[in-house]
Amino acid sequence: MKIMVINGPNLNMIGVREKGVYGTKSFEDICKYINTEGEKRGHEITLFQSNCEGEIIDELQKAYLEKYDGIIINPGAYTHYSYAIHDAIKGINIDTVEVHLSNVHAREDFRKKSVTAPACIGQMCGFGEHGYILAMKALELKNLAE
Ligand code: DQA
């Protein structure tokens, strides 16, 4: 499958920021892990990270134009308030899985609400970097079922 993996704001700081919550692995290492696991599973993986809402929306639209089969997105804090990213996901008709490294439901109240998850086929959270691979697996199963 042709899969786009999008990471939002501050995820490039993983390994540096709040190590107790997000762990010590660098963002670069997590990207390598996603790429390696994706290739093993026979996927074509494109990785994208941005701290800007508009750039994330542009990338989602690009996924539509370039006919991607699936999207894995960790919108970072945009999860909790970006209706624009919600609309962008809804608008492209590509199966999208939301991922969070941390268990957002066990944290501050504002993290318990995702405005982007309702535009996705599902959400994976609390499994660290493995969440991206679990999301890949979800896209594979969904693709097989169609
Ligand atoms: C996060 C959770 C968000 O609440 C937070 O703003 C992030 C990271 C996660 O992966 O656990 O930046 O998306």
Automatic annotation (TrEMBL):
What GO biological process terms are annotated to this protein in UniProt?
Answer: amino acid biosynthetic process; aromatic amino acid family biosynthetic process; chorismate biosynthetic process; quinate catabolic process
Please give the pathway this protein is involved in: Metabolic intermediate biosynthesis; chorismate biosynthesis; chorismate from D-erythrose 4-phosphate and phosphoenolpyruvate: step 3/7
**Record's InterPro entries?**
DHquinase_II (IPR001874), DHquinase_II_sf (IPR036441)
Site for Transition state stabilizer, residues? 17
Q: Which UniProt keywords apply?
A: Amino-acid biosynthesis, Aromatic amino acid biosynthesis, Lyase
Catalytic residue positions: 22 (proton acceptor), 100 (proton donor)
Reaction catalysed?
3-dehydroquinate = 3-dehydroshikimate + H2O
Please report which protein family the annotation says this sequence is part of. Belongs to the type-II 3-dehydroquinase family.
- HAMAP family reported for this sequence: AroQ (MF_00169)
Entry protein name: 3-dehydroquinate dehydratase
Species lineage, top-down? Bacteria, Bacillati, Bacillota, Clostridia, Eubacteriales
**Gene name, Swiss-Prot/TrEMBL:** aroQ
